[in-house]
Each structure stands twice: as structure tokens, then as C-alpha cells.
Amino acid sequence: MRGVAAVVHAAGLAHRTGVDPTAMASANVTAARRVAEIAASRGVPRFVLVSSAAVFGKSRPDPFSESSIVGPDDPYARSKLDGERAVRDALAGSATSLVIIRPCAVVGPGCAGNIPRLIQLIESRWPLPFGRIRNKRSFIDVDDLAALIGRTINAKEVPDILIAAHEQPISTPDLIRALMRGLSRRRALLPVPERVLQAGATAAGKASLWQSFAGSFQADVSLTARTLGYRAPTSVENALQRTAAAIRYNNTAD
């Protein structure tokens, strides 16, 4: 790492069910700490840790910002927060400055999480009873996230924590419509009351999944715009359409 201006640590373990907590801690805490220790020992000027906005929970009634109280509510989110603390401890007292980026859900070709599951549902014959969900969720295009990381590397002064998201959130019904456009599909979103769906999800033991799907999770990204002059240029709708189109193409190619 001699002569390196910055180290970006974006590796980690996510989007897997049934993962042993020890493996999660090893990937998201121990490995991050070790890379930070090496960076500090080599005198790297800046360390950029790509964490996750999941440290704020799965849903929140009001928009959240960098100064909001964290509230991780699953093993993945807790491991990401533990990773942040481990890296901060590893760099304490060194000449290496730390920037933590907490991205909201990242969309783009190859993304994981709820988006591929939604695409499978859209392509199936199952009904889509989501027309009456009223929420706001923040996302960021993968290329916009990469551009933001580049800004944090090159800027002289950077806040120690930044949230990465497009400034305009999207509702779950509009998210599904954007995916349908990317898939060239037209399906109706049935107007089933949200409380009925939530009760069904809770009864099925899927309350946590429901919150990440239908709860609000809106980021306030004004700090990024104010300090770095950066606003994610790719609309969430366009990012979702591109993601769905890429998945459709890959499925056709297979």
C-alpha cells in the first residue's frame, strides 16, 4: 500500500439467509478491521468503508440522516455496524482518516436482495396485491454509488459518515411499475388494503420482510449535496428499468 492515496473496503457478506453469525462477523467485522490495520500501518491517507444504511433499521416513519440514531435489527445490519466500530478503533490515533458510506439499497444489473424476488413475482402468474401501499423508500444506482465513492477519495474535506441515495424516494407500487417497464410487462396492481397484507405477512412469520418491502425508509442526503456538491443523477425509476431489462436479457440468453 505504499504510495496509495486511499483504500476503499467494499467487501462483505450480505443477502444470504441462514448464514452462520460467525461467518457474518468474519466477513463484515474481522476482515474490515484487518484491512484498516494494514492501511494505517502503511500510512494510507484515507480509508473509505462501504457499510450499509441497514444500520438504521428496515423502516422508519420519518426521513433519516447521518445524525439519526442507528437501530440495526438483523444480524447483517448489526455486523455492518460492528464493522464500522472495528475500523474506527483500528484507525484511532493513526494518520489515516476514515469515511464511512452507508448506501441505501443498491440497484443495477446483478443486484441482490428484494429486486430479483420482485422480478420473479412479476414474471409469475401470482397476483400483485400491492396497489394500496403508501410508502417512500430510498435507493441508489450502482454507478452513482461508484461516483460518490470517487468523490470521497478525491475531496480534501469529507464528513466522516455519508448516506448514499438518490434524493427522490420511490413507493413500492411505483417500484414495481418501473420493473414492469424494464421487463416489458403490463400487470395490474390489485388495491388490497395494506393492513390486510401486513397481517398476513405477520401471521406467516414474515413481518421483518414486510417492513423491508412496504415500510418507509427515506434518506435525507442533503449533507452529501452540501459538502461534496454531489447528487445522484440516475433516477430510481431508470435504474430499476435498467436492472429489470438486464435480468430479462440474461434470462433470455440462458
Automatic annotation (TrEMBL):
Residues 4-155 form the NAD-dependent epimerase/dehydratase domain. One of its GO terms (molecular function) is aldehyde dehydrogenase (NAD+) activity. Pfam families: Epimerase. Signal peptide: none annotated. Gene3D superfamilies: NAD(P)-binding Rossmann-like Domain. One of its GO terms (cellular component) is cytoplasm. SUPFAM superfamilies: NAD(P)-binding Rossmann-fold domains. InterPro entries: Epimerase_deHydtase (IPR001509), NAD(P)-bd_dom_sf (IPR036291), NAD(P)-dependent_oxidoreduct (IPR051783). This is UDP-glucose 4-epimerase. It comes from Acidiphilium rubrum. The lineage of its organism: Bacteria, Pseudomonadati, Pseudomonadota, Alphaproteobacteria, Acetobacterales.
